[in-house]
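Convert to structure. Protein one:
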Amino acid sequence: MQDQSVAIKDEEAAHPIAASWRPILRKVVSAFVKGNYQLSRPIEGVSPVPPDVASHIQNYIAGYGETLVELPEETWSTSCAQWMGAYWDVLVDLYTEGEGASDLVLTGRMDEVEGKPQFTVGLVYVP
């Protein structure tokens, strides 16, 4: 996938994660790496994570048996977003200490709120 600076509204195909979204997604994964699944410290551009979602993410990562690591630059070559008519479905490939690129993904939804991206964490799982 090519580098993409802006989010593309295309209901027919997925596209690379917009460059403007990447810092937000990096901060979310960084919080998860530190065990902060509920994002107790708010991240600008990210909705609060409900306790049940945070618990599911924590349990799924623990059950996966690998240690999550910060997102490397390579993640953007395989991660994608697809316009769903009113928001984007986002899929971010995650990395672990032992595997590098893992089978785990972070899903979520990206909305535009007053012209700014607003990410809602979905789940972390193996599709």
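Protein two, convert as well:
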Amino acid sequence: MSKKIKPGGLAAAINDILEDYSESVEETVADTVKGVAKKAVKELKGAKVGNAKKYQKGFTSKIETTRYSTEAVIYNAKAPGLTHLLEKGHAKRNGGRTTAFEHIAPVESEVVKELPDELERKLQK
């Protein structure tokens, strides 16, 4: 819809348009980050990690949104100390090492690839 603007109001009109666009981009980024984090949590919950059902169910995400950024932190709320031990394996008491169940790194690498692609796709609409 066209709107008549007086010469003195051009800067204000451009500023309003840019603010609207900025808000739209911020919403899109926040929604995309939330969606990708939710998908990552679902994949981590479904990952095969021995017989650690309680551990698998403990994955969750926390979204932190500020004026200039949206961050997703994915963590295990029920057994936070096990993530590194299960991902990398650890030494046994009587020698040897346990089997490493690499389940976080593949999801992380997928998210690192997916998020920019998804943002680009949504912002080009």
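Residues 7-123 form one domain. The beta strands are 59-65, 70-76.
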